[in-house]
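About this split. The held-out portion is used to measure sequence recovery: a designer receives only the structure tokens and must propose an amino acid at every position. Recovery is the fraction of positions where the proposal matches the reference. Here is one held-out target exactly as it appears in the evaluation file.
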């Protein structure tokens, strides 16, 4: 199933959802000690493997992290070929002085923001959605 490609339609149907929990980014050299079921996101870089895990799993595994994030899912099914979505929400969040780390998955985009900014980020994203609904 192909996702939506029209930016205006995507923004009108953004539907951000704040997932429960605290999440961390960490780097490991190997995955042999980490249960795959605990990994939310994995990206292999030349310097090592970046993982996103729930904070309590990272602590149980004695992994190092410095950034504690909240995870927001944009429930709109956007196409990986859609142009401008990341720019639109990252600019809105940036204007509110909120940093974001983005993962584009097959069905949805996922945004990680500092845990202290989670509710403010949700407000910004909901406002972005409403502003685009008004521009029918």
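Reference sequence for scoring:
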């Amino acid at each position: 199933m192909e996702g939506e490609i029209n930016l205006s339609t995507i923004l009108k149907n953004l539907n951000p959802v704040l997932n429960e929990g605290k999440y961390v980014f960490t780097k490991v050299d190997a995955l042999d000690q980490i249960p795959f079921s605990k990994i939310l996101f994995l990206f292999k870089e030349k310097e090592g493997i970046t993982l996103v895990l729930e904070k309590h799993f990272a602590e149980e595994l004695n992994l190092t992290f410095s950034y504690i994030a909240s995870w927001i899912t944009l429930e709109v099914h956007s196409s990986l070929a859609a142009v401008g979505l990341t720019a639109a929400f990252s600019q809105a969040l940036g204007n509110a002085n909120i940093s974001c780390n983005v993962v584009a998955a097959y069905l949805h985009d996922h945004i990680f923001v500092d845990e202290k900014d989670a509710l403010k980020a949700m407000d910004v994203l909901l406002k972005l959605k409403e502003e685009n609904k008004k521009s029918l």
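Annotator remark: The first helix runs from residue 7 to 12.
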